Amino acid sequence: MPRVMSTRFTTLRLTTLTLAALAIVVAATAAQAQYRHRYSREREPKQVERAAPPVPLDKRDQVVAAPAAFAGKPYWLALAQCGGVYFKLNRLYTDVAAHARVVKPDPKLNAEYTKKLNDAIDTATAFLDGAARFLMDDRGIERDDAVLIYDGQSRAAGDRAKTIDEGLAAARSCPALYAACQQAHAKECSAPLSPTS
């Protein structure tokens, strides 16, 4: 009987040592993977902002005579860039409104930013519709093709604004651009602008 007990004891001890060794190997592997992940993240180059695709200019494009910030640019490009900024403002306002609605409920803040996000998307739509109309009229293309032309420029302009303040600063001269467009080209810039703050 002592021999059987000795075998059980040896088997139990061997099993315990095997499990302990396995646990050490698993822990070491996990630690090494975590180290590699952390180290590789630190060594990765910072994500560079995507540059907007080159602007496909055309001699048929009507150019902005005023205001100064957009002078000499094709109307479609200036309108698309402003539309992109307002679209980004809509996304930034949406984040604040969602936080005020779900994370830390604040009905007053939610109502304020919900109004701002709706105004921003209405304004973005007016600018982007104007850009599409200019491309359609000046170049004689379909709306889908016009959107493909202005989309990259619009996104790039919006992506440069990381905060609400940056977005508002980027959009500062856009209402004057739209007012000048309404006076000179009432057909292309026919939508009323929502007041944005």
Please, could you describe this protein's structure?
This protein is mainly α. It folds into two domains: 1-44; 68-184, no CATH class. It is 71% helix and 0% strand. It is built from six helices and no strands. The protein has helices at residues 2-43, 75-103, 107-139, 143-159, 164-170, 174-184. 27% of the residues are buried. The model has no long low-confidence stretch (mean pLDDT 83).
Short note summarizing the structure:
With 197 residues, the protein is mainly α. Helix content is 71%, strand content 0%. The chain has two domains: 1-44; 68-184, no CATH class.
Give helix % range: over 70%
Helix/strand order: HHHHHH
Can you tell me the number of structural domains? 2
Overall mean pLDDT: 83
Total strands? 0
Number of helices: 6
Secondary structure category: mainly alpha
- Low-confidence residue ranges: none
Strand content: under 5%
Radius of gyration: 30 Å
Distance between the termini: 90 Å
Estimate the global geometry from the Cα principal axes. Answer: elongated
What multimeric state do the chains show?
single chain
Let me know the largest β-sheet: none
Strand and helix map with partners:
Layout: H1 2-43, H2 75-103, H3 107-139, H4 143-159, H5 164-170, H6 174-184
Helix pairs in contact: 2-3, 2-4, 2-5, 2-6, 3-4
